[in-house]
Structure formats: structure tokens, C-alpha cells
Amino acid sequence: xxxxxxxxxNFTLMLVTTVALASLLPAHGEGEVAFNLLTNxxxxxxxxxxxxxxxxxxxxxxxxxxRLHLLVFASTFAVxxxxxxxxxxxxxxxxxxxxxxxxxxxxxxxxxxxxxIAFTSIARGNVPAAVCSxxxxxxxxxxxxxxxxxxxxxxxxxxxxxxPFDSIGNIMLQLLVPFIAGQLSxxxxxxxxxxxxxxxxxxxxxxxxxxxxxxxxxxxxxxxWHQIPPLxxxxxxxxxxxxxxxxxxxxxxxARWLGFSREDEITIVFCGSKKSLASGIPMAKVLFxxxxxxxxxxxxxxxxxxxxxxCAVLAQxxxxxxxxxxxAQRATTGVVTPLGRDGNAExxxxxxxxx
Length: 355
Hints:
Elements (H helix, E strand, L loop, with lengths): L9 H15 L4 H25 L2 H8 L2 H21 L1 H4 L5 H12 L5 H9 L4 H26 L11 H32 L1 H26 L7 H28 L4 H11 L4 H11 L5 H41 L12 H4 L6
Helix pairs in contact: 1-10, 1-14, 2-9, 2-10, 3-8, 4-6, 4-8, 4-11, 4-12, 6-14, 7-8, 7-10, 7-12, 7-14, 8-9, 8-12, 10-14, 11-12, 11-14, 13-14
């Protein structure tokens, strides 16, 4: 029997179930430590498998795709803060002053890494470019975000915490080292990974589900949901929805207006419209006083959950369109454009080299 069209896809249902589970049974104590460790292992495995899957030529093509990276950086570090400031007349009466500072802080953060790459992979976008763009955004954001906070979030106090170089070390250890290890292992296990693409999909989706559970568990455990007036919380949800919708529309139409391919458009949308919870929480601890930290990070937590939900649906829709296009091509010509070594069409693997 055909699946009713009004029902969401299986992955979206898994995300909703994961949020409900974290709300009812959040991880505590040793369980929370175990889930954080498992999440880190899953993220490292994701980058290792992507490193083993991607050809050296595809990685170089992604790294040199400067037009794509420039648009993603502009969206992340310029358009986002402008949107947050421009919406102040509307947002200031929808949320408390501290929550609005949290929204501005959200707009200054770097892009998320693991989920942006995972969604790009699920949607059949330009994965090499996503790896390079998202990783670079996270690294440079450690230095750019404090500057933007000083310019955009006009007042903050109690700037204490760990050195930003500790965050760089964590990013290198958790993301870049596994990816490089996968690249070095490609000659030995690359063909095996190609034959077991289902494993990569499981790791893609599994890492996102683990991030959702651990992040939402932390929010529930800290009791933030009970510290904000219901109307302000409702207004905050609306603010996050407006900002996310605008950025998704901006990245989509900017990519099309500038003539990027469909695979590049997917990468720009998922890398240029997302904000990193993993980077944002440590940065907030460095930049803001402990007493105001709860309200500052709450917009980021809600935006993070919202972007995962919405991007899960978008990724599935992009993938469905790709499959439908291939099916139509097969029906009319009997030939389907072969997939390149990075999992996309041959023409998209080299999309960055010609731009």
C-alpha cells in the first residue's frame, strides 16, 4: 500500500520520536556522559567514512570552490547578523531583552558541521564542498564570532572561560583528524565503503539523532523550559522560525541567481542556513556571565532543534527530486547519468573546478 502523502518521511518521524524520548527520559549522570561519548564516536565515524569515501580529486575540487565558500561565509557571518538587527523592532516586543541578546548571539555563530554534511549527503549535494565549507566556518568562527558579539551584541559581561584555542583543538581532534585518517585509509577500505553505502546512511542519520537527543536532554535537565514565561517562549519559537525561513529562502534563491548547480545549491542551503550548538555553548560560556547564560543559549537550543527538523524534510525532498529526475531520464532515454566517486553525478563532482 502506498504511503499517504500527508505523513512525514521515516527520518522525520525518528527525529520527532527522539525529541519526545529526550523530553520524557532525558539522559542523566553517567547516562548523559555515555551518550555524549557515543555522539562523539558517531561524529568521528561519520567523518572517517566520508574521508574514506571521497576521492582526493573530489576533496581538492571542493576546497577550491571559492564562490560557494564565499556565499556560505557571507550568509553565516554577514546576512545572519543583519537579519537579527533588522528584526529588532519586531523581536523586542515578542521576547524578553535577555532572549533577544540570545537571538543576536545565535546570529553571530558559525555554521554547524556534522549535521550540515550529513544532510548534504542525504540530499545528494556536493559533499566535498560541504566538508570544506562547514569545517572552515567552524574553525574561523572561533575568531570571528567574538568580534561579531562585540559589534552586534552591544552589551555583555563576565567574559571568563576556556581559551578559544581549546575549541580549535577539539574541532581538529573530533572532525579533521578522522577525516584525514579516512583519506589515508581510502586505498585500503575505499572500495568496501563504496559497496556498503547503506552503512554511511546509517551513520549519517544516526549521528543527527544522537545530537538531537543529547542536546535536548541537556535543555530538559537544566530546566530552562520552566524559567521563561509561556508567551515569551512562544514568541521565541516564532522568531526562530522567521529567521530560519528567511535564511533558507535567501540561500536557495541566492544560489540559483548566481548560477550554481543543484548539488552546489544543496550545499549552500544546508551550510549557509544553520548554526552550531556544539560551538555555540562553549563560546557562550566564554563570552557571557553565568547568571545570564540560560536565556542566552535558549534561542540557540530551540533554533538548533528547529533547523534539524526542517532540514530533515528538505533533505528528503531534495533526494526525492534527484531520484524522480533519474527515473524520468531512464524512462525517456534508457540511460541514467552515472554517479561519481563522491556519490553525486559525475558532473557535480567537478562542479567546483570549473567555477
